[in-house]
Amino acid sequence: VQLVESGGGLVQAGDSLRLSCVASRSTFSVLVMGWYRQAPGKQRELVADISGGGTSWYADSVKGRFTISRDNAKNTMYLQMNNLKPEDTAVYYCNVAEASTSPWSWGQGTQVTVSS
Asked: How far apart are alpha carbons 43 and 86 in whole angstroms?
């Protein structure tokens, strides 16, 4: 299984970015998928997830600023990030977000850097 993240970059506080994640496995469409991030010196954390039917969940730190979505026909998931803050700086990854399913192999991630 291959997960390919893209869309990161260097932006200023208050700017927006849209991340994309393409999965090579067709079972993508039936699984809860999530966006994770790992900041330097910190553990990887789940920031948002979305079910195959489109039900979403957000961590408090991003609620109201980030929007997760998916296109099952394209095996693609998105993360629209608005009003970015310096504390959002991290490498962002996508992966399975179901407790009963082991994560797939992690992709290379996409770096998001937010300057103040």
From this structure: 17
What gap in Å lies between CA 55 and CA 39, rounded to an integer?
26
Angle at 29 between CA 28 and CA 34, to 5 degrees: 60
- Segment 10-68, tens digit of pLDDT: 999 999 999 999 999 888 888 999 999 999 999 999 999 999 999 999 999 999 999 99
Question: Tokens for 53?
Answer: 């039917």
Nearest C-alpha neighbor of 32 from the set 104, 114, 116: 104
Q: Beta strand pairing status for 17-23 and 3-6?
A: antiparallel
